[in-house]
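ESCALATION

Customer reports they have been waiting on this structure for their group meeting. Please prioritize. Original submission:
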Amino acid sequence: MEIHGTVAAGFEPAAQAFRENFERRGELGASFCAYHRGRVVVDLWAGFTGPRRRSRWRAETLCVIFSATKGLAAAAVLHAAHRGLLSYDAPVADLWPELARGRLAELTLRDVMNHRSGLVAVEEPVGASELADPRRLAPILERQEPLWTPGSRQGYHGVTYGLYVAEIFRRAVGRTLGQWLREEIAGPLDADVFLGLPPEQDPRVATLVPVGRIERLLKLIPHALKEDNVERRLVRALLDRRSFTTRAFAQPAAFGARGLQVFNEPSTHRLELAWASALASARGLARVYAVLASGGALDGFTLCDPDAITSLCERQSWQDPDLVLRKAMGWSQGFLKEEGGLFSPNPEAFGHPGAGGALGFCDPSRQLAWAYVMNRMDFRLRSPRAVALSQSLYRSPAIADAA
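Update from on-call: job pushed to the front of the queue and completed.
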């Protein structure tokens, strides 16, 4: 496999891990980018943009990043809060009066972003027309009852995070999350990330290869039958139709039997699904996290004050296990505080992974930021390819020797 790109002196383990992902871990097409102290130190790409291997992966190749989208949404909210346009701790009902009822009356944006709102499921069908029109979607969200008292418990809001955060943002700011990301962050920062992809960008998009039926039978099921792993707990939870896990991922009904293949369709790329549909290159996603790793400012662009980054470095919520993903998880204003040692050994680190392996992460204590995008999806909740790349950075002499 021919590897393209550059690696700065002191970061050679990252190049080795990237190559091993192709040679040993089944990579098809991918890119990996890392910043240290505000400059690019790893910029690698290789492979193919689709399963037929007809087109080579390029540095500018875009890929759907699934729940890594949530990290971009969190960055947009952080930026709008810096501008004074919204508050994490004011009642959501101040912006959305229809939620001023019962247990939702004191609901805050922080509750929503830290996956503690109780609005973990949408029990009415959500179709394509609702996904495309916030005015049609809002009444459905308003009628939903929380499954626990807001603030009292934590369960990953796999879909509803994006639904509620997007509507709160639109009401507070007067623009959609996708518009804000494009006009106020990606544009000024020159970051190659999109929530709502313009048609002219379609030729750059890689084809996702979800886990197939044979792979599920040969790999996922035997893996899930082993003792004490998160996939085993998730499979068991998904077999219970009333579990928080099943209910959290039951919608949107619009996707139906097409499953993850719907994310290969240009019509889905046009949507602003603030939980799953962003597209990014590794360079673009890493650049957003480089701002967060650098005290909130980079190359003349300011996302937030340094004090806001300090707040993100602290874990704001934690539950073991999370009621939906059945593993220990924590959050800080929409960014994941993963269990220690997985993506980073340092508790200050935060970011967001996506289904199949996509990842955007940063460690402000080391001024380190990185992103990984790929098209062949992994069947595990945390991709070994993403973990290997993350851990390789901390084995790099430039980081390890400075610890």
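Sent to customer with the following note: The chain has a mean pLDDT of 95.
Escalation resolved.
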